Amino acid sequence: MQDLKAELAETLDEAEWQWLMPHAQRDRLIVVSLGLDLVDVGVAIANDDVLSVQHWIGEQLIYKPSPTQMASWQSDGSKRFNALIVQPYVLVQEPSVQS
Angle at the Cα of 27 (from 13 to 23), degrees rounded to 5? Predict the structure, then answer.
């Protein structure tokens, strides 16, 4: 499992909303709340860790974006996300705002 985590951590990247839109349209985009580690969520999904994933869904810590959210992101041309591909999904997390 450590190898998978390291492998996923290496593929973690930044993506613009324009690049993510096709995945959202295919219902393959999953938003991960800031309280979770994006790589840990990717590992759980890749390993089919149903208990963790169901818990996060139940707590609304991971979810598919709403049409309202997507419209908001669409209107912000510079919107960027941390992104991780875990086939067939793309996991995204809005970076925390630096103050």
Answer: 35
